Amino acid sequence: MTNQKTDVGETPLSEAQVNELNRLAWNLRVIDSNQAFTLSKKAITLAQQIHYQQGLAEGLRTLGFCHIRLSRFTEALDLLQQALRLFEDLLHERGLSDVYEYFGIIHRSQGNYAASLDALFKSHQFRQQLQYKEGLALSFYHIGVTYKYLGDFGNALHYSLQGLPIAREIQAAMPESYLLNSLGGIYLETHDYEAALDYYNQSLTLRQRIGDQWGEAGCLDNIGTILLQQQKADTALPFFERGLVICTSVGDQKGQGNTLLHIGKIYQQAGQTNVALDYINQSLTIRKSIGDKKGQAEIGLFLGGLYQHTQPDYALLLLQESLQLAKTIKASDLIYKIYQMLAETLKQTGDFRAALTHFELGLKLEKEVNSESVNQKLLNLQIAHQVEQARKEAELYQLRNQELAALVEEIQHQKNALNQTVQELRNTQAQLIQKEKLASLGELTAGIAHEIQNPLNFVNNFSEVSVELLDELKEEAQAGNTDEVLAIADDLSQNLQKITHHGGRASSIVKGMLQHSRASNGQREPTDLNALADEYLRLAYHGLRAKDKSFNCALETHFALNFPKISVVSQDISRVLLNLFNNGFYATQQRVKQGEARYQPTLTVSTELTDSGIQIRVRDNGMGMADAVRAKIFQPFFTTKPTGEGTGLGLSLGYDIITKGHGGTLEVESTEAEGTEFIVTLPG
Question: Angle, to 10 degrees, between the axis of helix 441-479 and the axis of helix 482-517?
Answer without folding.
Answer: 160
